[in-house]
Amino acid sequence: MRTTPASPRAWLRSHPLFGDSVLAVLLAAVSLAFAGLASGQDSASGRPPAYTFNVAAAVLVIGTCLLTALRRRWPFVLLCLAQLPQIALAVLRYEGGLVGLVTLILLYTVAAYRGLALSMVAAAVTLAGYAVSAVIAFDAGGWTQHTIVVVVTMTVWVGGRSVRLRRAYFAELVDRAERLERAREADTRAARAEERSRIARELHDVVAHHVSVMTVQAAAARKVLETRPEAAREALVAIEELGRTAMREMRGIVGVLRTDGESGELAPQPGMVDLPGLVDQMREAGLRAQLWIEGERPVIPPGIDLAAYRLVQEALTNSLRHAGPAARAWVTVRHEEGELLVHVEDDGHGGVETPQRGPGDRPGHGLVGIRERVALYGGVLRIGPRQGGGFEVRARFPLKD
Length: 401
Known about the structure:
One of its GO terms (molecular function) is phosphorelay sensor kinase activity. The protein is of the alpha+beta class.
C-alpha cells in the first residue's frame, strides 16, 4: 500500500533528537566564531583583550553547546551542568560565546516540559549561575546589563510556561472532544436500542392480534366449509380484510426504518376512537365482546392514546386465544378527571381446551409490551386472574397537561 510522505515539519516533530543535535552544532559553531572575534577585538590598539580564547575555552564552549542535543530528555539536569562551564569560563577569563543562550534554551525547555515547581527551581538556578559569574567577573558589566539579563531570563521562563499551559489546554480540549464523542455514540446506541424495542412492540401487537384473529377465522371456515359454504366464504373475506389491515399497519411501522428519504405509505396510528371497530373484529372472530365508554372523552395525548388501544388489543387477543370459544369479554373505558381507566376482562368459561402453544412460541411478549407501555407514561397496571373466574387487565393512565 502506498503511503503519503510526511512533511519535513512532521518528520522533525517525530525525530526531536535530530533537530536538537543540529541546533547544538550550530550553537557550537557560532559560539566559537563569536568567541574568537571577541577575544581579539582589542589587538589593534595594542592592549590585551579583556578575555582570551584558546583550546580550553573552545572545549568548554563546545561541551556546553552540545548539551542542547539532549535538552528534551534531561532538561533540568543539563541546565545545572551548564552552569559549571559558564562559571569556569568566568574564572579563567575565557570568552564564552553563546553559552548564555544555551542556558536560556535549557531554561525554556524545563518551563515548557516540566512542572511549575521544577521550572521555578530552574529559573533560580539560572539566575544564581549568572550571579556567580557576574561576581567573579565584576568588571564585565553594570547594573543595566544585569537588569536586562534578569528580564530576559524571566521572559524566557514565562514563555515556556505559556507554551506548557497552552499545550495542556489543547490536550484537555482533545480529551473533552473524545469524551463527548463517546457519550454521543453511547446515546445514539441507546436511542437505536429504544427505537428497535418500540418497533418490536408495535410489530408484535399488530402481528399477534391480526394473525390470532385470522387463525380463528380460518379454523371456523375449515369446520363449516362443507356444511355452510356461505359462512366459510364470509370467514375468508374477513381473513382477507384482516390481512390487508395488518399489512397497512406493518408498512406504517416499518416506514420509520426508511433511510433513503422516500415517503412510505404512512397511516395514522390507531387510538381509542378505533375501539368500536376493534371490538367488532373480535366479535366477527367469535369472541363475544362488549364495550362500555363512560365519562366525557378529554383530549388524550397521542402516546397514551396508542398505548391504551394496544393494551385493549392485546388483552382481547389473549381472550380470543385462551379463554375458549364460549367466553365473553368486557371492555370498560372510563374517563375520569386527570386519569384514563382501561379495564378488559373475560369469564374464561370456554368449556373446551384452549389451543396449545407450539414449541417455538415464547409466551409473555404481549404482556411485557403492555407493562412497558403503561410504565412509560407513569401508569399503574394490574394483570391477573379475575374474581369468579377468568382473566383481567386493568390500567390507569395519568393525563398530565
